């Protein structure tokens, strides 16, 4: 069930010693219980599918950065010792024909950036060629990883995808960009 899957995600994250966590498609604007016990909940933003959450590890001071309500992003200026990094958790608009919306969403985040370093984590919902254009807007680098971030043949998160693995295309829309 979705509740079991969410609990499993929280348990997996809690095992790691992370400094930052960005999640998409959360069920509400409230902190997830298990993560809220281990991490500091920065805040939440509404997206086209669920809610975006941003968490930081205790001991890292942060300041939330306000964005327009229609930008599916939670943005904070986080201090990691002497380094200050703007950290954005995103879930950009999905679908073909939404390229102009994703570009506007990216531009809003870039306009709010104040630190020398920007880290954007989340679901960009953009194919490779469009992601390249989004990256170039902020002169950002992609922290490349092997595999697919949404591969229903391996991570059967949704019950209705079971048995349909060959019918659903896997994608790499979840990314980490940095400048």
Question: In words, what does this structure look like?
Answer:
By secondary structure, the protein is of the alpha+beta class. The protein is built from four helices and nine strands. It has helices at 2-15, 33-38, 99-112, 128-137; strands spanning 20-26, 40-46, 51-56, 62-65, 73-80, 83-91, 117-123, 141-142, 174-178. The mean pLDDT is 87.
Structure described in brief:
The chain has helices spanning 2-15, 33-38, 99-112, 128-137; strands at residues 20-26, 40-46, 51-56, 62-65, 73-80, 83-91, 117-123, 141-142, 174-178.
Break the fold down into its secondary structure elements and pairings:
Elements: H1 2-15, E1 20-26, H2 33-38, E2 40-46, E3 51-56, E4 62-65, E5 73-80, E6 83-91, H3 99-112, E7 117-123, H4 128-137, E8 141-142, E9 174-178
Parallel strand pairs: 6-7
Antiparallel strand pairs: 1-3, 2-3, 4-5, 5-6, 7-9, 8-9
């Amino acid at each position: 069930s979705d509740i079991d899957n969410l609990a499993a995600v929280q348990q997996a994250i809690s095992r790691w010693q992370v400094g930052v966590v960005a999640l998409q498609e959360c069920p509400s604007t409230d902190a997830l219980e298990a993560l809220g016990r281990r991490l500091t909940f920065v805040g939440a933003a509404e997206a086209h599918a669920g809610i975006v959450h941003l968490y930081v590890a205790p001991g890292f001071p942060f300041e939330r950065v306000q964005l327009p309500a229609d930008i599916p992003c939670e943005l904070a200026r986080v201090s990691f010792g002497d380094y200050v990094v703007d950290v954005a958790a995103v879930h950009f608009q999905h679908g073909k024909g939404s390229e102009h919306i994703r570009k506007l969403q990216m531009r809003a985040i870039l306009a709010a950036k104040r630190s020398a370093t920007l880290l954007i984590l989340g679901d960009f919902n953009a194919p490779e060629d469009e992601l390249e254009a989004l990256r170039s807007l902020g002169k950002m680098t992609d922290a490349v990883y092997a595999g697919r971030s949404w591969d229903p043949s391996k991570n059967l998160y949704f019950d209705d995808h079971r048995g349909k693995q060959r019918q659903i295309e896997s994608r790499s829309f979840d990314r980490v960009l940095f400048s």
